[in-house]
Amino acid sequence: METFGALDGPGIRYVLFLQGCPLRCVYCHNPDSWCVQGGQEIGSADVVRDILRYKSFLKKGGVTLSGGEPLMQPEFAAAIIEGCIDNGIHTAIDTSGGVSLLLCRKPVELADLLLLDIKAADDQLYRRITGHSIDNPLDILAERERMGKPVWIRHVLVPGLTLDDSQLNKLGKLLQHYSCIERVELLPFHKMGEYKWEQLGEKYTLSQTQPPKPEEVEQAREILRRFGLQVK
To answer: What domains are defined for the chain?
Structure first.
C-alpha cells in the first residue's frame, strides 16, 4: 500500500499493489510480483476501511489498484471499487490488460479510469515482450470505448524493441481511432529492477540495454502526436 502516490492517476492517490501477474515482460521491474503467492492477505472491507482513513487527502485524487496485475483478482478489485464509489472516491486500475475480459469485466466497467499498458501494437513484438497475445488488452480497450469511459495508455520505450519509429507509427495508427483515450504516457525503460531478476534466479535479457536518451523520448512523443494523441 502506498498512501501518498502521485504517479498512478490524477492527483494524490492511495495505491494498492496486488500480487500476481500472468505476463512475463522482458523489462519487468517487479518480477517478485509474478507469483500469486506471497504478499499480505487482507479482505476488501478492511482495505476500504483503511482507504477511508485518508479520504480527506484524496478529494482531488483517489484510489488506484496496481500490481502485479490487479485484474487477476477481479472480485476483490470490484469490491474495493464499489466501496470507493459508495464513498465518493475516484477509482483507477493500472493494468497490463493481461487477463481475459470474460474474467474481469466487472472491475473494468466499474473503474472511473483505466491506466492500460499497451506493450506493442505489433502482435509478434507483443508476444516477444510478454509471452502472450495482444488480444486481451485490445478487448479491454474496446469495452472502455463502448462505454465511453476514459483510458490512459502507458507504453514503455525500450531501445531495440519499442523505441523504433516503425513500431511507434504502428502504435499511433492503432490508438488514433479510440475516443476514450485521454492521454498516452511514454515511460522510458530503466534497469532499477534488474537485481530482482538475479535474486529470483531468472535470466534478464536486457542487461546490455541502456535507458533511452531524453531526445529519443521526445522524438517518440512527436511521432505519436502526429496521430492526434495527447502524449505525456
So the answer is: 2-225 (3.20.20.70)
Which of 53, 61, 95, 60 lies closest to 77 in space, CA to CA? 95
Four-point Cα dihedral 143, 128, 72, 70, nearest 10: -80
Taking only the tens of pLDDT, the chain with its 232 residues reads 999 899 899 999 999 999 999 999 999 999 999 998 878 999 999 999 999 999 999 999 999 999 999 999 999 999 999 999 999 999 999 999 999 999 999 999 999 999 999 999 999 999 999 999 999 999 999 999 999 999 999 999 999 999 999 999 999 999 999 999 999 999 999 999 999 999 999 999 999 999 999 999 999 999 999 999 999 9
> How many CB atoms within 10 Å of residue 63?
29
Sign of CA dihedral 139, 145, 151, 156: positive
Contacts of 93 (CB under 8 A, 6+ apart): 64, 65, 66, 70, 71, 77, 81, 107, 108, 111, 113, 114, 115
Q: How many whole angstroms from its chain centre is CA 112?
A: 14
Decide: 18 and 65 in contact? Cβ < 8 Å. Answer: yes
Longest alpha-carbon distance in the chain: 49
2-5/13-18 β-pairing: antiparallel
The pTM (predicted TM-score) of the whole model is 0.95
